[in-house]
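During the no-cost extension, the postdoctoral fellow (Dr. R.K.) reprocessed legacy sequence entries with the updated structure-token encoder. One reprocessed record is reproduced below for audit purposes.
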Amino acid sequence: MTATYTFDVFSSLDGYGAAGGDWTGYWGKQGPELLDHRLDLYGAEQRMVFGANTYRVFAQMLAASTEESDVRDPWVTRMRSLPATVVSTTLEGPLDWPDATVVSGDAVDVVARLKEESEVPLRSHGSLSMNRALMAAGLVDRLQVTLFPVITAQTGLDPIFRGGADFDLELLENRTLDGHIQELIYRPTLH
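Re-encoded structure tokens follow.
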């Protein structure tokens, strides 16, 4: 049996994974229900999978943060404590991340092997280009989109599906958090 792979991503309504300008983390829309839910999601035993760029961004943000900043929310601290695989052809270990391993190679090959070998579910938060390739290869079992109630047409960064394939999405779960944030979990299949 293969491990389930979840691509977990935050998004504005118009499909951006982040925004510049005066937007803050979570686009300033987070509340206690979202943060508690995220901590619960990351409380289960699982292995994180990151591309090199996302690993670098997370490591840099955490190194520059303080205990009081949004960057160190309890779910992020928990995510950092989980075992992780960083897929990269440019990074070498050891990494500034507890229990992280660098695996060199094509992400599709690496994740296909991880899915066969892992005894726990796999989850990737961010890593957009890597996860677009994994979706196209049919390796993403669940697409978990946390949709924030904002449009960032002028300041949006990191279009989540730019250059990606077309997919049909089967809605598996949905919930509203803090009265205005939507979490949508889909099973993607190539169209």
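The helical segments are 32-43, 52-64, 74-81, 107-117, 128-136. The domain at 7-26+45-190 is CATH 3.40.430.10 (Dihydrofolate Reductase, subunit A). The remaining legacy entries will be reprocessed before the final report is submitted.
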